[in-house]
Write a structure and sequence with these properties.
The protein contains nine helices and seven strands, in the order H-H-E-H-E-H-E-H-E-H-E-H-H-E-H-E.
Length: 209
């Protein structure tokens, strides 16, 4: 199977080829068609298996195909446990959107929020964030999440282990109920599955562990 077989649009396909990606990994082969179809997803696979591309590529394709002129509100929200992982995800979105007109914002704590707020005010398509800082900004009305179409919870087991579950629940209150939710985790203990099923709607499931 190739990325062409997954019906990736030409601008993203070109970026993927320039990076040197030739054959999609198993998680990418299974997840990309599900995400493109608009279904919710529970994806369980170890770190390093290509999960970021499995949600970034189809998410970018969906918002590009649905993009409306003049709408500068964010459409994709990726929540992740650490600033380091947020940075890695941001780099992937930058690579895959090289030939698209996509703007993104990277939001995490431990640094001044001034520059982050300034970028948000200009309008972005994608927000990649750690839960605590995003919740702070949402609570201060510095960011609107009412137009989010795709929510990604990445490394969900780590986020729950780090105590972010209450922050995530509070963030969910700022999001529209009608959205696509993608839940990625390296492990799937009963507590993670219970939380996933409570926020997803008829999800399809991939388990590669």
């Amino acid at each position: 199977m190739t990325f062409e077989d997954l019906k990736i649009i030409k601008p993203i396909l070109q970026a993927v080829q320039e990076i040197g990606y030739n054959t999609p990994s198993p998680i990418q082969q299974q997840a990309i068609p599900i995400v493109l179809s608009g279904n919710d997803l529970i994806g369980c696979a170890q770190t390093g298996t290509g999960k970021t591309a499995a949600f970034a590529i189809p998410a970018l394709q969906r918002i590009t195909e649905n993009k409306k002129t003049g709408n500068t509100a964010p459409k994709v929200l990726v929540l992740t446990p650490t600033r380091e992982l947020a940075g890695q995800i941001s780099e992937n979105f930058t690579l895959f959107s090289k030939h698209l007109r996509i703007r993104q914002s990277l939001i995490y704590g431990g640094v001044s929020a001034v520059n982050q707020i300034a970028i948000l005010k200009k309008g972005v398509d994608v927000i990649i964030a750690t839960p605590g800082r995003l919740l702070d900004l949402a609570g201060q009305n510095q960011v609107s999440l009412k137009d989010i179409e795709i929510l990604v919870l990445d490394e969900a087991d780590t986020m729950l282990d780090m105590g972010f579950i209450n922050d995530i629940k509070k963030i969910l209150a700022f999001l529209p109920t009608k959205r696509q939710t993608l839940f990625f985790s390296a492990t799937m203990p009963s507590s993670i599955r219970k939380f996933a099923t409570s926020i997803l709607k008829q999800p399809q499931e991939i388990n590669l562990n």
